[in-house]
Design a protein that fits this description.
Helix content: 25-40%
Number of strands: 10
Strand content: 35-45%
Distance between the termini: 10 Å
Shape: globular
Structural class: alpha+beta
Strand order of the largest sheet: 8-7-6-5-9-10
Order of helices and strands: HEEEHEEEHEEHHEE
Number of helices: 5
Largest sheet: 6 strands, antiparallel
Radius of gyration: 17 Å
Length: 196
């Protein structure tokens, strides 16, 4: 499952996900908010593709059209309102265990810089912590696990074949044009992919 398939799957899983739309040259983006644009290929691996994160509507439209000219034959450009992450992480799901890795603020702190506040491993009824056991609040782990169970249910066949799924998530806030948080904190999933 590549990035585009992951975006489509998340949208149909009935779990909290980014409210993405496909970008076109006619797209009108509200100038009261910051925006994120990502590119996704229709097929094949699509890691490290260009993106624009936390840009104003004017810059988002320019970048979106630039990405469209590069990827319209073999992919899509999607856009969604930028959010500020309070805590982020990945969850690995397979038939034997669930592993939640979490970091303060943006997921880039984990994937780019290797920072991690806690790893929680669930094997049956056993729970193992590595790092700050109190980093994720009980209600946060409960909410993550509730949504992981939805993913597990949907992909039971793949998991039974020995595949693993990786989902990226954040507890986040919407943001205004000044990059100030607005509204209540919420859980959002924004990437889902399978690994053998």
């Amino acid at each position: 499952m590549n990035k585009l398939m992951g975006f489509l799957e998340l949208k149909h899983l009935n779990i909290p996900t980014i409210p993405w739309k496909e970008f076109s040259s006619e797209a009108v983006l509200d100038d009261r908010y910051l925006w994120t644009l990502r590119t996704a290929l229709k097929s094949s691996s699509d890691l490290n593709l260009p993106r624009a994160v936390g840009v104003n509507s004017h810059e988002a439209v320019i970048k979106g059209n630039e990405f469209l000219s590069q990827f319209s034959n073999n992919g899509k450009v999607i856009y969604y309102p930028y959010f500020i992450a309070e805590k982020s992480g990945v969850v690995e799901i397979n038939s034997k265990r669930i592993v939640i890795e979490a970091v303060e603020k943006d997921l880039w702190n984990f994937v780019t810089y290797g920072h991690k506040n806690v790893t929680i491993t669930y094997i049956g009824d056993n729970i193992e912590y590595c790092g700050d056991e109190k980093f994720l609040l009980p209600k946060e782990t409960e909410e993550l696990l509730k949504n992981v169970n939805v993913i597990k249910s949907k992909y039971r066949g793949d998991l039974n074949e020995g595949k693993s799924l990786i989902a990226e998530w954040s507890f986040a806030y919407n943001t205004d044009i000044n990059n100030e948080p607005i509204g209540e904190k919420y859980l959002v999933f924004y990437e889902l992919r399978s690994i053998d």
